Amino acid sequence: MDITNLNKSYMIPEVPREDFVEYLETCCICGSKLRFTHQTDYLQLQVQEEARCPDCGIRNKTTNYTLQ
């Protein structure tokens, strides 16, 4: 099943969940599995996540999440 974006006239293909998770956990340069670190601030109710490749050393942009 395809999902249509109503604001733009192009189709977005549906990707199997396993393929999407593998894409998020894989280094875009060397293809090895990324290592994720999390720092939790319970006073501010935020989590800071960073992904790093152990083989080539590249780091992804730090992402902040709000705890609920």
Q: Features of this protein?
A:
68 residues; alpha+beta; two-stranded antiparallel sheet; 5 strands
Provide a short characterization of the protein structure.
By secondary structure, this protein is an alpha+beta fold.
How are the SSEs placed, and which strands pair?
Layout: E1 3-4, E2 11-12, H1 17-25, E3 35-41, E4 46-52, E5 63-66
Could you walk me through the main structural features you see in this protein, from its secondary elements to its overall organization?
The chain is α+β, with helices and mostly antiparallel strands and 68 residues long. The chain is 13% helix and 32% strand. It contains 1 helix and 5 strands, in the order ββαβββ. It has one helix at 17-25; strands spanning 3-4, 11-12, 35-41, 46-52, 63-66. The strands form 2 sheets. The chain has a 3-stranded antiparallel β-sheet, with no helix packed on it. A hairpin with a 4-residue loop joins β3 and β4. The two termini are 32 Å apart.
Strand order of the largest sheet: 3-4-5
User: Terminal Cα separation, in Å?
Assistant: 32 Å
What is the count of β-strands? 5
Structural class: alpha+beta
What series of H and E elements makes up the topology?
Answer: EEHEEE
List unreliable stretches of 5+ residues.
Answer: none
